[in-house]
Amino acid sequence: MSITRIPALLGVVALAFLFLLTIKVIKHPAEDRIAKRLLILLLIGLFSMAYCLFYVYAGMRQYWPVLANIEIGLAYWIGPSLYFYIKRINGGPSPFATALNYLHWLPAILIELMLLPYFSMSLSEKLAYFQHRSSSIYAPMIWYTWAGFHLHVLIYVVLCQPHLRIYRQRIVDNYSNVSVLNLRWLQLFCYGFIVQILAERLLPALKITSSSLSDTAGMAVYLFIIVLTYLALGQSRLQFANTGQPVTSHGKYYRSGLRDPTAQYYLDKLNRLMATEQYFLESDLSLQSLADRIKISPHHLSQILNEKLEKSFYDYVNEQRVEYARQLLLTEPQRTITDIAFQSGYNSKNSFQNAFKRHTGTTPSD
Question: What are the two backbone dihedrals, phi and then psi, of residue 311, each rounded to the nearest 5 degrees?
Fold first, then answer.
């Protein structure tokens, strides 16, 4: 085996990162076991894709030919698992509750059945296959299987986009700190797969590059996986449940029953309590927790902020945090920006700087 080759070594790192993320997901307490199960299925699919490249680059074919191509079917778990996971944390039903949804995983089963004759070959026949792959009947079958995998994932990536947009809006409407709950790593997953598929399939077809650059393409996939898992590992809270109130937009509260005098009363109460109790300094402040304190439903609180102030919950809280921090920066210039950021309710210097620049047009240091 040639495990010391750079692509193979990079594969070891990628597989190690995936293993760590899988352990984190398994150990993480799940408010929703369905969402957790879907995320584990997604990680198994990523494992299979990374294992395929490692098998090739480590030169395992002549030593363990029996392990060749066993991962192809598992790779087909990636698309549906990603799609249903994002739908689930948006409040969608369990995909396992409807028999028809199992058809999304049917290609994985069909692939394994189609390759069953290959898997049942003897050891000598598999070695002969690797020596004369170009003339084997299984070579084009496996090529089309991986091409189908790329198309399969691409379809689900497109289907995920509206649900990701809904999720981002739900976070802004319900949480004052979006960094702990964002799905940036899954959005990068979608974009990265599109780039990877175009590079691997389109460029050779246009004769811009050749298939001899497979090592470079494989290393790019490994780096992509490492970045993905690094972002997911750095996320302080993995999301396994429906995130807050459903998305609403201005002018769509006609069924809420909240009248203007009542709304103004609760807005005055909200502003008074925020000024005296300074709830905005709590880094984990949510729409639900704030609504409980002023004795109103989260839906009505969101309506008041949207209609009376034309602000999301996230903007409302962060404007007050930024103003509080601005006063500290002016009156206590000897303190560090990081120290002031944490005191103002932020859990990182970067999120503080972004919010400060957004609301004031300048940086904290300026």
Answer: -135, 150
Distance CA 210, CA 336 (A): 53
- Within 10 angstroms of residue 313's Cβ, the number of other Cβ atoms is 25
CB of 229 closer than 8 Å to CB of 20: yes
pLDDT digits (tens, 9 = 90+) for 239-283: 665 656 666 555 555 556 677 888 889 999 999 999 999 999 998
CA 73 – CA 75 distance, rounded (Å): 5
Decide: 87 and 163 in contact? Cβ < 8 Å: yes
299 Cβ neighbours under 8 A, 6+ residues apart? 245, 248, 256
With 0-12 CB in 10 A as exposed, 13-18 as middle and 19+ as buried, what is 87?
buried
Angle at 46 between CA 68 and CA 58, to 5 degrees: 40
DSSP single-letter state for residue 286: B
Q: What is the mean pLDDT of residues 76-87?
A: 92
d(CA 238, CA 14): 20
Task: State how far the Cα of 233 lies from the Cα of 315, in Å rounded to an integer.
Answer: 27
- Residue 175's DSSP bridge partners are 286
Q: Rounded to whole angstroms, how far apart are CA atoms 131 and 124?
A: 11
Enter the pTM of the model.
0.76
Burial tier of 328 (Cβ tally within 10 Å: 0-12, 13-18, 19+) = middle
